[in-house]
Amino acid sequence: MRRTLFRHDRIWTGDAGHAGAPWTDALLVEDGRIVAVGAEAISAGDDAESVDLPGAVVMPGLHDAHIHTEWLSRDMSSVDLREARSLEEALELVRAHAQGLPDDEWLHSGRWNHNRWAVPVQPDRHSLDAVSGDRVAALSSVDGHTIWANSLALQRAGITRDTPDPVGGEIVRDASGEPTGILRESAQELLDVIPRDESPLRPWLERCQDWLLSVGLTSITDIDGEDARAAYVELHAEGALRLRVTKCTRDPDLELAISEGRRSGQGDEVFRVGPVKFFSDGALGSHTAHMTEPFIGHEGCGIAAMPYEVLLERTLLAARNGLDVVTHAIGDEANRLVLGTFEAVRADGLDTLLRIEHAQHVLPVDIPRFRALEVVASMQPSHCTADLELADEIIGPRRLASYAWRSFLDAGVRVAFGSDAPVEDPNPFYGLHAAVTRQRADGQPLGGWRPEEKVTLTEAVHAFTVAAHESVGRTDVGRLQPGQLADLVAVDRDLWALEQSSPADIRDAVVLQTWVGGELAYERS
User: Fold this and answer.
1) In this protein, which residues make up the domain named Amidohydrolase (predicted)?
2) 244-250: strand order across its sheet
3) N vs C: which end of the chain shows fewer Cβ within 10 Å?
4) Rounded to 10 degrees, what is the CA torsion of 65, 209, 194, 162?
């Protein structure tokens, strides 16, 4: 039996809302679990190895409740267009990246954001043709809901003027009816017919694991598909998985999961079966979020990624087979419809864990439905600060609860936080900063965007720890108290002191050490 006494003057236990004390100065850990805190830990830990933790504060390890680690890992080898401020700048970045690639390598990912360009118009295949060379180019938008493809990609996928729009998607066409190269939502899947050789995922996933540990994440809920699942299973079998992973199943793999007998919660302390992920709509940046009213300056109300009857059928199929459900819904109409499918789950007498992913723009009348149906609002604070100007521009002053963390909490709704990386940076301290200030990194807007929806630091940390774990059925981790797994991080600054004096500095917090199950998983050199 391994016994370790962790000591530090300021250890945040996460127990602020319970009978225990929020602060302590010692943790006694036996075989990966906390068995005592404070004076009791010190008195019982005479024979334990003693570790003095560095930094200004120690806190529970953070859980990203919504992250795409396969996508994030693959992005490490792709061109990064997030900071481009014009089409021309984006094209030059593509040209430079393409020159360093093997001849048969695709141009992929990209994470371009035309909403940030000087002229915010969506690009076309002709401009991409000029810089992509004789290779397939299929560049994803920052939100992952639109592909910018070159002519070669369209040709190899057989996409022509006569190709019909798939259900839940759109092939954007020019005035003459020719595809422009912009594929929205399910239309992106038309490119899947193109043969593609990819490098093995595992080495990239291991590098990604190191990155996540370095920013204080000790556990994640991964949203990606079967390739990521297989890589995690292999890592775990070899003892190389140092993060705790709850692994989602994607909608197309639901029947496979059922046939294999997967049930949410199966697994161990490190790797577990998670929920099934469905899509109800698209994204704000791609103008495909499903809204009850048209976007300002646009004719449409977005896209229903799946017909309601199909979404209802798939949701019930998952729930009846012991799989929890998380459904992507950004627009107010999408949220309303998803809540309808969840009402059917509850009417079926099922206690399935239910989450709405993002819940960005919600009709105020629907907030109590989250509470009544015991639905978790799985939200990403950095989406607010990334999209606030766009929300004002294309949604405007209509009465919606937008990124409404305060409203959800005040209504008794459980709120779990994550990043949606690589859509946003996975660093959870960026999310904490956004939740507390509702400001971008540059301090704008002054006072915060719709500041009435700010939350306290303690509430934000709870959403990144206890609530994030509970949203996938885990109650054995998230607090630093007896019985909990010993996942903790040592941080270079006292976030609770900064909340009062300089909340902007929360974003710049640096993790000095990350411990998972009482074992050192990362140390800043």
Assistant:
1) 51-522
2) 62-67, 217-222, 244-250, 271-279, 325-329, 354-358, 375-379, 415-417
3) C
4) 30
Nearest to 328 by CA among 272, 289, 371: 289
Contact 392, 444 (CB under 8 A): no
| Contact of 415 with 379, CB cutoff 8 Å | yes
Burial class (CB in 10 A: 0-12, 13-18, 19+), 393: middle
The answer to whether 275 and 353 have CB atoms below 8 angstroms apart is yes
Torsion sign across C-alpha atoms 68, 191, 360, 345: negative
**Residue 324 to residues 168, 319, 355, 408: CA-CA distances in angstroms?**
23, 6, 9, 21
Alpha-carbon Rg of the chain, whole angstroms?
A: 23
Quick one: pLDDT at residue 449? 97
- Name 390's Cβ contacts closer than 8 Å, sequence gap at least 6: 115, 284, 285
**Collapsing DSSP states into helix, strand and coil, what is residue 208?**
helix
- Give the other-Cβ count within 10 Å of 363's Cβ: 17
**Looking at residue 430, what is its pLDDT?**
98
Query: What pTM does this model have?
Result: 0.88
The residue type found at 352 is T
- Across the chain, which has 525 residues, the per-10-residue mean pLDDT values are 95 77 95 97 92 98 98 86 92 91 82 90 94 92 92 95 94 96 95 84 94 98 97 97 98 98 98 98 93 90 96 98 98 98 98 98 98 98 96 93 98 98 96 98 96 98 98 98 98 97 98 98 96
Q: What is the length of the chain?
A: 525
State the pLDDT at residue 489: 98
Q: Look up residue 155 and give its two tokens.
A: 């040709």
Residue 214: alpha-carbon gap to chain centroid: 17
E strands in 55-177? 57-60, 62-67, 79-80, 107-112, 137-141, 146-149, 169-173
Q: Tokens 């391994």, residue?
A: 2
Backbone angles phi, psi at 458, to 5 degrees: -60, -40
- Residue 69 to residue 241: CA distance in whole angstroms: 13
Cα–Cα dist 404/309, whole Å: 28
